[in-house]
């Protein structure tokens, strides 16, 4: 058997140690994970799943115990090794996506490469390749707010893969998605593990997901309760079977799907569909909007952003039939969408009107005292994260995650130190 790619020895994470509110988030966990395994960390809310995942990622330092990844003790890594580890060895996917609203889909995906100093042409080529693979190439120049939840998660998966890491870590990646989009994202993970041979560790509390894993780590009260090998999982070879799709075999559903992803060739759609079963395909088609519906909505949204129409008519127009100048959406989708739009607009506003001098001085303090050279965009982003933290809208992890994903690595390191 191969050596473990990840080894966790007696990992303990204790918050507020020695105080009355001490929490033993992880209480002596041992885990070995082997290359190309699909592992699910499973258990009820609060049992320590995320803490274990962050321990493996190096986002959370152990109170006691050790974590080895690819033979390296995370604690003993030099600063340079740690930066390279986060850039090249692991990719992370979160429940809340953590996309940057002011960057296009393509720029979000390529961001990890920007921090590696790769030239714009080659990083964009790689980014587009991943967007095509996940059926979101048409969205490349749109902004995250214009995407469905499932599309956003596909963007964040593309971002996690852009530097081609061996290990993908995902914390409740479908927790925010409707069931069809969730199934689609789970199929992508299956492919990343089965075809791309990435070691995959996914946290979930949903027992329906367990069928995907090679091995399940059951957690309870900060401890590993048991491990379970999934004997029912299909052999990995089965995933490699190529599926040829000829035009005459195309079902009407497939035609619909082609219309949704009209920039894809038949062959590419075929690749995209390898893991789909008929039911999932149908669900997928039903859950995705057509291009026409999306672009009609885009125009309506622009009217709203230019303040030509108010929120009520935004909702009415999205709901109206396309033949009557609407976007032909259903009520539920409209309500969800307009809620998200409002949320995003208020976030943008709070960042734009950032007159909070303490936010500025704290972020400036960190940048100066660690002697970090930041481009203006990263600085604005960093300030907005500090602001959220100061307003207690995010916790320490929220801040670390955002910095980790969206700012140069020096910022993440320094926040880790000062927080
Ligand atoms: P899960 O992901 O399984 O829901 P977590 O790993 O997030 O659980 O949390 C495990 C326990 O640690 C919970 O009781 C949680 O409240 C606690 N915890 C997590 N983060 C912190 C923190 N920053 N400060 C204090 N307690 C925390
Ligand atoms: Mg969690």
Polypeptide structure, described:
With 419 residues, this protein is α/β, with parallel strands linked by helices. The chain has two domains: 6-245, Rossmann fold, CATH 3.40.50.300; 253-418, no CATH class. It contains 17 helices and ten strands. Helix 3 runs parallel beside helix 5 (149-161). The longest helix has 22 residues, at 331-352. The model is unreliable at 234-254 and 260-287 (pLDDT under 50). The structure holds adenosine-5'-diphosphate and magnesium ion. Residues 49-50 line the site of magnesium ion. Adenosine-5'-diphosphate binds at residues 15, 23, 25, 43, 45-51, 395-396.
Bound ligand species:
adenosine-5'-diphosphate, magnesium ion
Helix content: 40-55%
Name the CATH architecture of the largest domain.
3-Layer(aba) Sandwich
Task: Please state roughly what percent of the residues sit in beta strands, choosing from under 5%, 5-15%, 15-25%, 25-35%, 35-45% or over 45%.
Answer: 15-25%
The dominant shape is globular
In this structure, how is the largest beta sheet organized?
6 strands, mixed
CATH superfamily of the largest domain: P-loop containing nucleotide triphosphate hydrolases
Order of strands, main sheet, comes to 6-7-8-3-9-10
Radius of gyration: 22 Å
- Low-confidence stretches are 234-254, 260-287
Number of separate structural domains:
2
SSE ordering: EEEHEEHEHHHEHEEEHHHHHHHHHHH
Distance linking N and C termini: 41 Å
Given helix and strand content, the structural type is alpha/beta
How many strand elements? Answer: 10
């Amino acid at each position: 058997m191969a050596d473990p790619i990840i080894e966790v020895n007696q990992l303990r994470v204790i918050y507020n140690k020695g105080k009355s509110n001490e929490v033993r988030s992880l209480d002596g966990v041992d885990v070995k994970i082997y290359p190309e395994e699909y592992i699910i960390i499973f258990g009820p809310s609060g049992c320590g799943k995320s803490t274990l995942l962050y321990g493996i990622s190096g986002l959370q330092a152990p109170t006691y115990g050790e974590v080895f990844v690819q033979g390296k003790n995370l604690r003993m890594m030099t600063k340079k090794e740690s930066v390279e580890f986060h850039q090249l060895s692991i990719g992370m996917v979160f429940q809340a996506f953590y996309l940057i609203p002011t960057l296009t889909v393509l720029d979000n995906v390529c961001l990890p490469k920007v921090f590696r100093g790769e030239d714009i042409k080659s990083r964009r080529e790689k980014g587009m390749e991943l967007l095509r693979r996940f059926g979101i190439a048409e969205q490349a120049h749109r902004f995250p707010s214009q995407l469905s939840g499932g599309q956003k998660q596909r963007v964040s998966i593309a971002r996690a893969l852009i530097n081609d890491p061996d290990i993908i870590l995902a914390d409740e990646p479908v927790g925010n998605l409707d069931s069809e989009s969730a199934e689609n994202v789970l199929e992508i993970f299956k492919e990343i593990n089965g075809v791309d041979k990435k070691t995959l560790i996914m946290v979930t509390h949903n027992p329906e997901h367990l069928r995907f894993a090679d091995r399940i780590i059951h957690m309870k009260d900060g401890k590993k309760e048991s491990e379970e090998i999934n004997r029912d999982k299909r052999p990995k070879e089965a995933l490699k079977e190529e599926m040829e799709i000829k035009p005459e075999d195309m079902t009407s559903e497939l035609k619909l799907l082609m219309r949704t992803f009209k920039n894809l060739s038949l062959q590419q759609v075929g690749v995209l569909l390898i893991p789909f079963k008929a039911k999932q395909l149908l669900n997928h088609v039903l859950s995705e909007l057509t291009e026409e519906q999306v672009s009609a909505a885009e125009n309506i949204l622009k009217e709203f952003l230019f303040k030509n129409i108010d929120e009520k008519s935004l909702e009415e127009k999205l709901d109206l039939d396309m033949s009557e100048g609407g976007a032909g959406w259903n009520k539920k989708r409209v309500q969800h969408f307009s809620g998200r739009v409002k949320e995003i607009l208020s976030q943008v506003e709070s960042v734009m009107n950032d007159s909070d001098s303490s936010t500025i001085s704290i972020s400036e303090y960190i940048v100066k005292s660690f002697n970090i050279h930041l481009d203006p965009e990263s600085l604005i982003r960093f300030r907005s994260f500090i602001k959220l933290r100061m307003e207690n809208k995010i916790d320490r992890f929220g801040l670390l995650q955002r910095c980790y994903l969206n700012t140069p690595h020096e910022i993440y390191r320094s926040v880790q130190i000062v927080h």
